């Protein structure tokens, strides 16, 4: 299959940017899914030692990828300890 793709790219060099951008988009989407699975507090990989990881987050921990109007360093604790 890779040999066929290589032949097509040699005969049609205008396809090279298409493969480049599609490959880059697929790579970025896989990296974002991996980030969501590893860094999101809603995902619990270890249920025995930390069954509720969202309860142990401090209020100034930024777990979102991009925050438009929120400055997480200035937030105060507004919930009880469990």
UniProtKB/TrEMBL annotation:
Alphabetical list of InterPro entries matching this protein: B12D
Keyword annotations of the record: Electron transport, Membrane, Mitochondrion, Mitochondrion inner membrane, Respiratory chain, Transmembrane, Transmembrane helix, Transport
One Pfam family named in its UniProt record: B12D
Transmembrane segment boundaries: 12-34
Keyword Mitochondrion (UniProt): yes
Subcellular compartments: Mitochondrion inner membrane
Membrane topology term: Single-pass membrane protein
Major place of residence: mitochondrion
Listed PANTHER family: CYTOCHROME C OXIDASE SUBUNIT NDUFA4, NADH-UBIQUINONE OXIDOREDUCTASE MLRQ SUBUNIT
Family: Belongs to the complex IV NDUFA4 subunit family.
Protein name stated in the entry: Cytochrome c oxidase subunit NDUFA4
The organism of origin for this protein: Characodon lateralis
């Amino acid at each position: 299959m890779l040999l066929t793709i290589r032949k097509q790219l040699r005969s049609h060099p205008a396809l090279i940017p298409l493969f480049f951008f599609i490959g880059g988009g697929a790579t970025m989407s896989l990296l974002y899914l991996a980030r969501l699975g590893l860094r999101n507090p809603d995902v619990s990989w270890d249920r025995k030692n930390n069954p509720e990881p969202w309860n142990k987050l401090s209020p100034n921990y930024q777990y979102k990828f991009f925050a438009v109007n929120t400055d997480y360093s200035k937030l105060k604790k507004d919930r009880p300890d469990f």
